[in-house]
Amino acid sequence: MLSHTMTKNQKPPTPELGVLPSWLPMANRVVTWLQRRGLKTGTIHILTVPGRISGVPRTTPVSILEVDSIRYVIGGIENADWVQNVRAGGWGILAHGRDQEKVTLVELDVKDREPVLRAFPTEVPHGTQFFERVYGVEPTPDDFVGLADRCPVFRVQAAPEI
Question: At the top level of CATH, which class does the domain 24-158 belong to?
């Protein structure tokens, strides 16, 4: 008979690859709530983009990283709603605490994603767990470069004034 208790040195079973953590929606709501009250949470920003069908603003937490003084955001899942909305609209509102900025988001070609993905584990170490869980990668620059064909990368730039 198998025991369901764990000894002191055992780790819990590895979660199934490709499955988003069940706590992610709640964590996203908490981070969004904190940010809207002016509390900055590390590299995490709140990105609001118009829905591609409804036009209704849709909000999601994202981690911004800088490579060579250029800001980027990585889409952890190719067909995530926010990724599809950015592709359709190309712009959004980026908030960090109470600071807000209208931005354009330009998707990089797969061949241009390497330096950004390579920097992610070092620049956003708290963000690697998501990729480890979904893709089974180690939090190393080389493993992250291997995600180039599966994880869209967007250059974030201030929107031109009208």
Answer: mainly beta
